[in-house]
Write a structure and sequence with these properties.
The protein is α+β, with helices and mostly antiparallel strands and about 150 residues long. The protein has five helices and five strands; from the N terminus they run βααββαβαβα. It has a single domain, classed as Gcn5-related N-acetyltransferase (GNAT) (Aminopeptidase), CATH 3.40.630.
Length: about 150
């Protein structure tokens, strides 16, 4: 297994994983060729030094996992940096093998390298297994999150 920054060639596999669950199916649009909105978003992510789109590959070089890290500069905590983990996905058939744990532990180490004082993430309340997984890794539900959707896709 290799954990690395994603490339444009990885994008179709990443979008397919984002689509491959009950929640993702309602908001993503996986097809080949990919809609241009995904390519444009990928280019913006790659251009931003505080964003890291990560691909996890198997021994054959196939993308089997993904996540996005965002490093957020704050004034609080004496000008600290927070690392936000988003869009963690493992390809079907690869789940339950410990890859998710390896990914999150890698993300925590990456956050330390970037001098973050805190790693945070969110998970949809409908994802009971994911929430339990993060709790087992030491994450605590310390805040109540809120969202305001501005558009319907």
């Amino acid at each position: 297994m290799e954990i690395r920054k994603a490339t444009l060639d990885d994008l179709p596999a990443i979008i397919e994983m984002l689509t491959d669950d009950e929640i993702g199916q309602t908001r993503e649009d996986f097809k080949i060729p990919l809609p241009s909105s995904y390519v444009q978003a990928f280019e913006k992510i790659m251009a931003d030094p505080n964003q890291e789109l990560i691909a996890i590959t198997d021994e054959q070089g196939q993308v089997i996992g993904t996540m996005q890290l965002t490093f957020i500069q704050y004034l609080t905590y004496k000008g600290g940096i927070r690392a936000q983990i988003e869009a963690v996905r493992i390809k079907k058939g690869q789940r339950g093998l410990g890859l998710g744990k390896q990914m999150i532990l890698w993300a925590i180490e990456r956050a330390k390298e970037r001098k973050a004082h805190l790693v945070q993430l969110t998970s949809d309340k409908k994802r009971d297994k994911a929430i339990h997984f993060y709790e087992e890794l030491g994450f605590k539900a310390s805040h109540e999150g809120m969202k305001l959707h501005l558009t319907n896709l």
